[in-house]
Amino acid sequence: MQKIDTTSLPAPDLVNNNWEFAEVWMDAMLFPPYILLLLGDKAGNCCIYDPTEGYKIIFTSSTYEEAQLWLLEDEYEPIEGRVFSDN
């Protein structure tokens, strides 16, 4: 698997910095894999962003489970690991 250095990419102001965690999900059936970003806020709400669309919100839910099911239905797989906010 090829690794891509993403440290130089600017971080968008997602969820007005009210997010608690972030996960990366990918559709491994495509090449290169299609990536989506799931952010959960401190109130339990989740948003799924599409980085290729300027981080446009493509799905929102009031629970993590609902967002996870939406991704799994479209055959996305989570990339291992979760990033937590230090706020």
Low-pLDDT regions: 1-15
The quaternary organization reads as single chain
Order of helices and strands: EEEEHEE
Provide the gyration radius in Å.
13 Å
Count of extended strands: 6
- Structural category: mainly beta
What's the tally of helices?
Answer: 1
On the 0-100 scale, what is the average pLDDT? 82
- Fraction in beta strands: 35-45%
Q: How many strands, which pairing sense, and closed or not: the largest β-sheet? A: 6 strands, antiparallel
Q: Give the fraction of residues assigned to helices.
A: 10-25%
Distance between the termini: 33 Å
Shape: globular
Structure, described:
It contains one helix and six strands; from the N terminus they run ββββαββ. The protein is mainly beta and 87 residues long. Strands 1, 2, 3, 4, 5 and 6 form a six-stranded antiparallel beta sheet that branches. The chain is globular. It starts with 18 loop residues before the first strand and ends with a strand.
What's this model, at a glance?
The chain is mostly beta strands and 87 residues long.
Helix-strand blueprint:
Layout: E1 19-27, E2 34-41, E3 46-50, E4 56-61, H1 64-73, E5 77-78, E6 83-84
Antiparallel strand pairs: 1-2, 1-5, 1-6, 2-3, 3-4
